[in-house]
Amino acid sequence: MKIAIVGSGYVGLVSGVCFSEMGVEVVCIDKDSDKIEKLRNGQVPIYEPELDTLIRKNLSAGRLSFETDLTSVIDTTDIVFIAVGTPSDSDGSADSSSVFAVARTFGASISRYTLLVTKSTVPVGTSVKIKAIVHEELLRRGVNIPFDVASNPEFLKEGNAIKDFMSPDRVVVGTESERAKELMSRLYRPFLLNNFRVIFMDIASAEMTKYAANCMLATRISFMNDIANLCEYVGADINMVRKGIGSDPRIGQKFLYPGCGYGGSCFPKDIKALIHTAETVGYPMQILHAVEAVNERQKRILFDKLMRHFANDLKGRRIALWGVAFKPETDDIREAPSMTLIELILGAGGEISVYDPAAMEECRHKWGDRIQYGSDMYDAVTDADALLLVTEWKEFRLPSWSVVKRLMRTPILFDGRNIYDRHDLEENQFTYYCIGN
Questions:
Q1: Are strands 318-322 and 351-355 parallel, antiparallel or unpaired?
Q2: Which of 37, 131, 229, 252 is 20 to 30 Å from 68 by CA-CA measure?
Q3: Catalytic residue among 18, 215, 266, 434
Q4: Cβ count near 375 (within 10 Å)
Q5: In which band, very low, low, confident or very high, does the pLDDT at 308 lie, cut at 50, 70 and 90?
Q6: Catalytic annotation present for 266
Q7: pTM of the full predicted structure?
C-alpha cells in the first residue's frame, strides 16, 4: 500500500513517519521546498523525541520519501491524507482554505479510484465541502473517476506523539462507503492485530469526536484551575482536593493538575472553532466560553502574584523563567502561558531571563533582544529577583536549591505547575508561591 500525506507539519510528519515504520510506503508532501530538502537529508524541523531517528531509519529503508507536489505521485497512491494546518481565523473559525486547496488538487489530478482522508482538525461538515470540491474538479475535467472521502482525526500529544501513534488509546475513522472502510481497515491492520481499538463511525461524528475530546480535556484543566483559585480564598489545599476527587473512578486523575493555564496549537484553536461552529447553527456553547475565559485569566495568575509580592512595582526587577514551551518535550510556544507572562512583565518594566531545554530558538525568533537567554537553568536565575516555573520539564524537578539561592538576588519562587514541596523550599529559605495553596 502507498499513501501520500499532504502537509509535513507536526501531524503530517509524525503520521507519515509512523505509517512508514509499520511498513507502509509513504510520501510526505509540503509546498515548502526548503523544508522538504532538509527532510530528505534527515534534518527535522520540529522537536519531538525519537522522530529524527525514525525519519533517518525509514528514509534508508526506502519506505519514506519527501516531495513538493501531490500530482507527481498521485497515480501510484491508494490514499491521500490531508494534514495541513487549520489555524484560527479572525472570527475564531477554523481556516480550512489549505484543506480545500488539497481537495482541488486531488480532484484535478486523480486518474483512478483514490481515497481522500482528512487528518487535519476540521469543523463538522467539512467532508461534505471537500466532496463537492472534488466533484467540481472532475466535472470541469469531464471525467467520472470514483473516489471516497473519510475522516481520521489525530489524537497525538506533543512530546509523546510517536508512542501515541504506535500504541493508541483509539483510532477513530469516519467513512461513508464499504470500499473506504475496507481500505482504512487494511491500513490499520497492524493496530487490529495488536488489539488496539479502531472505531469506525460516520464522518460527521468522527469530525466532532476530535473537537469534543480536546474541549473536554481543556474543560478539566480550566475547572481545576478555577477550583485552585477558590482554594486560595477559603484556605483549602488544591493538591489534597485533586487527590480526593481523582480517587473517584468516575472522575480519574488525568488532566486534574492545576497550573498557570494551557496553550499549544490544539486546545485554544479547537475551542474557538467549536464555539464558532455552534454559533453558526444558533446554539451557544456556554461551558466552552467559560473554559476559554478561565484559561485566559489563568495565564496571568503568576504575574498577578508577582505584582502583589513586589507591591505593583517591577521596574528594574530581573525575573527568571524556567520553561517557555507550552508543555514539556516540545519546542512549541504557540499560545503558551509564558507568552502572556513575558509580555506582561516587560510591559510592567521588568527584565526577563529565560531558559527552556528545547524552545530557546523559538524564543529568539519571538522576542529577539527584548529578553535575555540563559545557557542553562542556573545561568538564567543569576541575579534574579524572582523565579517563575512555567513549564515542568524533568530537569527542573530536583535543582540544587543551595546553588539557586546563591545565584539569585532574592530567593523567591513562583511555582506555576505545583511540582515543588513547600516545606523543602521554605527549609532552603525561599519565599514560595504556588497555585491553589
A1: parallel
A2: 131
A3: 266
A4: 9
A5: very high
A6: yes
A7: 0.91
